[in-house]
Amino acid sequence: xxxxxxxxxxxxxxxxxxxxxxxxxxxxxxxxxxxxxxxxxxxxxxxxxxxxxxxxxxxxxxxxxxxxxxxxxxxxxxxxxxxxxxxxxxxxxxxxxxxxxxxxxxxxxxxxxxxxxxxxxxxxxxxxxxxxxxxxxxxxxxxxxxxxxxxxxxxxxxxxxxxxxxxxxxxxxxxxxxxxxxxxxxxxxxxxxxxxxxxxxxxxxxxxxxxxxxxxxxxxxxxxxxxxxxxxxxxxxxxxxxxxxxxxxxxxxxxxxxxxxxxxxxxxxxxxxxxxxxxxxxxxxxxxxxxxxxxxxxxxxxxxxxxxx
Length: 309
Description:
Blueprint: E1 11-17, E2 29-35, H1 39-48, E3 55-58, E4 64-66, E5 71-77, E6 85-88, E7 91-95, H2 100-109, H3 124-129, E8 133-134, E9 137-138, H4 139-142, E10 143-149, E11 155-158, H5 160-163, E12 177-184, H6 190-207, E13 213-214, H7 239-245, E14 252-253, E15 256-258, E16 266-268, H8 274-292, E17 301-303
Parallel strand pairs: 2-5, 3-5, 4-17
Antiparallel strand pairs: 1-2, 6-7, 7-12, 8-9, 10-11, 10-12, 13-16, 14-15, 15-16
């Protein structure tokens, strides 16, 4: 590491391995990992950090491959100071570190419907960043506003127009860190909402490899979508079906495998490197393009440097 770190109230660890912080359990170290105590601590740190040093926000690592050489710069991971959930009428406000499932359950208890979040792995910051969606509802559909800390340490409020929601993505300037988000949730009967979430969980466990080391869906469905992130029904192509038709269900490379239970789940069978996982994913993209003429787009975020040879 060739840069100085400002004093903080939270915790900074230099040369911190990241594999254990991701669902895939792969990846090299970060130059530094910072766990801020609260939003003020985060803002002060970013304001004092050399602007030439890259920062990377990391949630629970549920939709992420960190390459084997690790990440140059500072990885920022939000913890207990950023996981509060508050409900005021229809408005549900959650810290960026609050788990999607917890937000869905708390909202349901209060008679507010955010049930689509129940089966989405990860935290609210990641859900906002990816415009996460399930069962026909996306974050963009219920989003009210968010707060973020800019790379220069300024705390700002963001609207839907600022985030430019699209299918499985939103726009955020480099180095900005989301700290909380507010949603306007429609009403619902708590018992009915709980029953719906239980059914969703049962369906997920039946069709997806929830006990394996995956990072959720590997590739986006190559469908037509509007600027709000909602399906416009022009196409109904499924990535898993394209992968299966290309003969890649169950395909493996090193310790990586396209899961036999669900073809769109890239899996670490136990000894995969990040290079194995990424290379298998690229081979899948190649085979699908050869078979169907469609270029699949990664949904999993891949970051960092490859291992030195």
